[in-house]
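Box 3.1 A note on notation
Throughout this textbook, protein chains are presented in two layers. The first layer is the amino acid sequence; the second is a token string describing backbone geometry. Keep the layers aligned when reading.
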Amino acid sequence: MLNILLSDRVQRIKPSPTFAVTAQAAALAAQGHSIIALGVGEPDFDTPQPIKNAAIQAIQNGFTKYTAIEGILELRKAIVAKFSRENQLKYEPNQVLVSCGGKQSFFNLAQALLNHGDEVIIPAPYWVSYLDMVLLADGKPVVLWAGIEQNFKITPEQLTKAITHKTRLLVLNSPSNPTGIAYTHAELKALGQVLLQHPQVLIATDDMYEHILWDRTFCNILNACPELYDRTIVLNGVSKAYAMTGWRIGYAAGPQTLIQAMNKIQGQSTSNPCSISQIAAQAALEGDQSCIQVMVKAFKERHDFVVQALNAIDGIECLAGDGTFYAFAKVEPLMKRLKMENDIEFSQFLLHKAGVAVVPGSAFGAAGYIRLSFATSLDNLQEAMKRLKKSVDNEQ
């Protein structure tokens, strides 16, 4: 058998843990097991009909050819209008790049910005792909731990200590995947004051869950510290707010020089995003926004139930989130009582004994935790919590 020598680059990284859990759950379900999948972060709602209608019309109109690499001008204008209307941020279309999902936006950024050994500060718990995409770009991830004891938020003191002459980028994700926690205006302003002292550091603010918030108004670091405009890149997309995960449209806005460099990277990888998806994204951004609140109301109801149910189990601690559709629970005390070595073993136990698929916290840089997605029906969540509690009780 031929022994193929793989690149050092690909051996630095690991497969997506969330998709691995989803695949394992699907395989067990295919074998006839009853599995409740709380792994993948995907709204269970359908894409709103007006958005689908716009895509269907695009197909019928023959809008099925290549577009500009950076996305059609009409969509980029819609994104510029969205930033102005909702975020009070001013951009021009040439400061916007549309990509095949938010993941590609960050990948483009890392490839366009980082040189070998450049440091990227990533608060943990973190979204699973940040670290690996930095490694693929020859960068060095610098992980700042912010556990449940500090509400999953880094402090200005932590940030100050972490910045070195090699620091090139800080990544902020608020509201956060996996924790559901959002920084306040005051907290972001305090971080901004630190960053103003280090002009070599750029900031990536990942706002993908901007609209899935309860009891507060969305704020990113540019709203709190406008002086950082020239070195901040805003990442967003239509996947979560409009239930459009499969349409694969993300976008980034920031300094024109950096956007142009990211466009070069995209030009040698995927080229333009799907033409039909671009029309659908434009319809989403320009159309009736009431569909968002319908989803957010359901997510909040599910959040309240899941957090209460988890905290009712001895050995589990779960903070109430500010948004998203995730609960991030500390299970370390329960693991120790059940004599389990780590959160991976605990997650496997839940999958095989309870038929509940969750993602181990170590995938997010948080050993001893689990992430549960409540982007499924309340009936499913009620059954999942019942199974979880029963399987734990039976082991004690």
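The mean pLDDT is 96. The two ends are 48 Å apart (CA to CA).
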